[in-house]
Specification:
- The protein is of the alpha/beta class.
- The strands form five sheets. A seven-stranded mixed β-sheet has the order 12-13-14-11-10-16-17, with helices on both faces.
- Helix 9 links the parallel strand 8 and strand 9.
- Helix 2 runs parallel beside helix 8.
- It starts with a helix and ends in a 6-residue tail after the last helix.
- The N terminus is likely disordered.
Length: 516
């Protein structure tokens, strides 16, 4: 059952957003719908003030050696580890997710912080590249911070996505204006406090809860780079805004993620894994599987195994690890799931298991649901549900599965289950999406901080994680040096002879050992 209100409120004590005007909003505990706490709400004026403070703090921060920034990150990471139970309570209280899903956020932040602490020094170190003339010319590539980075984070993973995107921006020498989702501000605030205690200057990271139409817009209009996670429609709007200002933009957007199951796969294992791949955070995960393509000759067998596995899931509220799936986070998501299901069944789809809201468990609970007989006429065939609803499709052969999986405007994540890893990898290479996991739903890709993660098509642009996840927050600057006058005709020499010899000399130099 939910943790007592007094305990949750104790977890939230001392968390303050940047909003001096006194405006507040009430955040509810998702499991019960009861008030959880109040949070300060920012407006455009608060963003303007935070931006001025951030610019001043960023200049000093960028001047500090990278090793000092890494030290702050290391201290923060240790604090997250020590205080993980408190952070888990906060994540669950404002999202309603099961505790194991909340722990994915802790694991993701710990892994990302550790990866960048180990690699940032090398990634940000000036890199020497050959000049056109050996010995007398040379060049170094530097990575300068963008300045002030805006991070607009979603409600579904309020720690992993809000803080996980902010850490590499800070490590690269930037300041950050962070707008958490209005319904999930406390995870960002709690982690910001841990960063401050670890030595991060307070003016360098401003947490600004508030409406996207005002706070999000003001951040986009003032920052030097914008990172956004959310819907494709909002992503397009923000991308146009950034394009008008000629600033960089990266986004992870929607998905309609497919899974392919071949006849040679271990169907029992796939059914177990699918309960996580489809219903982690009640399906409110950009990487969640919503379409499963199964070879015809094992389709019936797999359907039985999946239905049994899903029907056996433990659904309910609780601040412990005893539950497989928690609640939806908002009434809007509950309405979307209900509408998609009603539309599908009215047009002939069949519910294999689930299909009911569960107000007896909490106001926003909905059973994990498996559908068959979904056609193109149904909304859930192509539109992202972002809830606990998955559709099964029989296919004759793998080629048909690949064709159907790729037949989407989205391209974020996919999963493949085959007889062997080699067969799965061969299928994965044919899929048009930013990440494919063979033998798992999404966890292996998402939990690899050294590998870039992002989408193709309507699923976004740019990447988080890996070298790109840090370097996107920098501007590469080339500083080249040359002996005075060495690149032009020598004084008193023949310009014509010089220019005639330029190409042969350049070709000779290019063939020297060690030249790129």
């Amino acid at each position: 059952m939910p943790v007592p209100e007094s305990t949750v409120l104790h977890r939230l004590s001392g968390l303050a957003a940047v909003a001096p005007g006194g405006r507040t909003a009430v955040v509810d505990e998702v499991f019960t719908g009861d008030p959880l706490g109040e949070v300060a709400v920012a407006d455009a004026e608060d963003v303007t003030a935070a931006l001025a403070t951030a610019r001043a703090a960023q200049r000093e921060w960028a001047a500090r050696p990278v090793r000092e920034r890494i030290a702050v990150l290391d201290r923060y990471r240790k604090s997250v580890y020590r205080e993980r139970d408190r952070l888990l309570d906060i994540i669950q209280a404002e999202t309603g997710k099961a505790r194991w899903t909340a722990q994915e956020e802790i694991l993701g932040v710990l892994a990302g912080a550790r990866y960048y602490a180990r690699t940032a020094g090398g990634l940000l170190r000036p890199r020497r590249v050959p000049g056109p003339l050996p010995l007398v010319t040379g060049a170094r590539v530097h990575h300068r911070p963008k300045g002030v980075v805006g991070v607009i984070a979603p409600w579904n993973y309020p720690m992993f996505l809000a803080i996980g995107d902010s850490l590499p921006a800070l490590l690269a020498g930037n300041a950050v204006l962070l707008k958490p989702a209005a319904r999930t501000p406390f995870s960002a605030l709690a982690n910001a406090e841990l960063l401050y205690r670890a030595g991060l200057p307070r003016g360098l990271l401003a947490v600004l809860p508030g409406p996207g139409a005002t706070v999000g817009r003001a951040i986009a209009d003032g920052c030097d780079f914008l990172m956004f996670t959310g819907s494709t429609a909002t992503g397009r709007t923000l991308a146009r805004r950034c394009a008008d200002r000629l600033i960089g933009f990266a986004a992870e957007l929607g998905g309609k993620n497919p899974m392919i199951v071949t006849a040679g796969a271990d169907l029992d294992a796939v059914a177990r894994i699918a309960t996580r791949a489809c219903f982690s955070n009640a399906g409110q995960l950009c990487l969640s599987i919503e379409r499963i393509y199964v070879q015809q000759r094992v389709h019936e067998q797999f359907t039985e195994k999946l239905v049994t596995a899903v029907a056996g899931m433990k659904l309910g509220p609780g601040y412990d690890f005893g539950w497989d799936m928690g609640s939806l986070t908002s009434a809007e998501q509950l309405e979307t799931v209900s509408k998609h299901l009603a539309d599908a069944t009215s047009k002939g789809a069949r519910i294999c298991t689930g299909g009911r809201p569960r107000p007896d468990l909490g106001p926003l609970f909905f059973e994990p649901t498996v559908l068959t007989g979904v056609t193109e006429a149904m909304d859930c065939a192509r539109a992202e549900t972002f809830g606990p609803l998955v559709s099964l499709y029989p296919v004759a052969e793998v080629d048909e599965a690949v064709e159907q999986a790729n037949d989407s405007d989205y391209g974020l994540n996919a999963a493949v289950f085959a007889a062997t890893p080699a067969e799965g990898a061969a299928i994965a290479a044919r899929l048009r999406c930013g990440a494919v996991t063979v033998g798992e739903g999404y966890a292996a890709a998402a939990a690899s901080p050294g590998a870039p993660m992002g989408g193709m098509g309507d699923s976004g642009l740019g990447r988080r994680h890996g070298p790109d996840g840090l370097l996107k927050y920098t501007e590469p600057q080339t500083i080249a040096t040359a002996g005075t006058g060495i690149m032009g005709p020598p004084a008193g020499g023949s310009p014509e002879r010089f220019h005639r010899m330029q190409v042969p000399i350049a070709e000779f130099i290019a063939r020297l050992p060690g030249r790129p």
